[in-house]
Each structure stands twice: as C-alpha cells, then as structure tokens.
Design goal:
mainly alpha; 134 residues; single chain
C-alpha cells in the first residue's frame, strides 16, 4: 500500500531562479480570480451541506425511533426537555458538553468521509476551466 499522494500544489511547475534566459511569466489575473471564486463557492457549499447533514441526522434518528409519528416525537422531546429542566446544573453542563462533543465528532467524521470526493470534484472542475466557459 503506497502512502504517496499527489496534491494540487505538486502539479505547479518549478523554475530555477538563476536561469539567465528565463523570461518573466505573466499571471492571468482573470483565471486566478475565477479559480479562487470557484474554490470559495465549492468550499462554502461543501461546508454548508456537511453542517446540514450533521444537524439533520438527530431529527432523522428521533423520527425513526418514534415510528415516523410526529406526536410521539414531540412527546419524547417534551419528556427530554422536562428532564433537562429539572436536572442539577452540573448535570446540565455535562449534557451540554456531551452534545457539543458529539456534534464536533459528527462533523469531523462526516467531513473526513466526504473530503476525498470533494477534492476530486474540485480538481476536475479546476481542470476544465480553460475550455472556453464564456
């Protein structure tokens, strides 16, 4: 199993600085701006969809446990709220910390699962940029 990976940065050609006949390269500002905008838009979409997936997962699980009945779902949520309200402050704090940790683990795990596909899609989209999208 090879651990060697090829990154987008690895594809940038390197030129020695002390070449006497080297000419100045011009940077295509429009292509750079378009590529930057594409990366920002794709990254924002990736982050938003990952966040919505993680936030929607508990609703799906609660609906599944309630047998797809909204009355049972809201009865269980009311029961959970009543127990939270009557709990000691220390127990409330631990419950809130547990929820925060579960959220961070969920978002991190889902991001790690989705990241390779996102990077492949981003690489493909950046590669097709010079094909006349006017």
């Amino acid at each position: 199993m090879s651990l060697e990976t090829e990154m987008l940065v690895d594809r940038v050609p390197t030129f020695p600085a002390n070449r006497p006949h080297a000419r100045h390269r011009t940077i295509d500002g429009l292509a750079l701006f378009q590529g930057t905008c594409l990366v920002l838009i794709e990254s924002a979409g990736f982050a938003a969809s990952t966040l919505l997936l993680v936030l929607g997962l508990p609703l799906f699980v609660f609906l599944l446990l309630a047998g797809w009945d909204l009355t049972s779902l809201f009865a269980q949520l009311g029961n959970l709220a009543e127990h939270y309200r009557s709990a000691e402050p220390v127990a409330r704090r631990f419950f809130a910390q547990d929820l925060q940790i579960a959220f961070l683990v969920g978002i991190g795990g889902l991001t790690l699962l989705r990241l390779p596909r996102f990077l492949r899609r981003l690489d493909r989209r950046l590669g097709e940029g010079g094909q006349g999208h006017d």
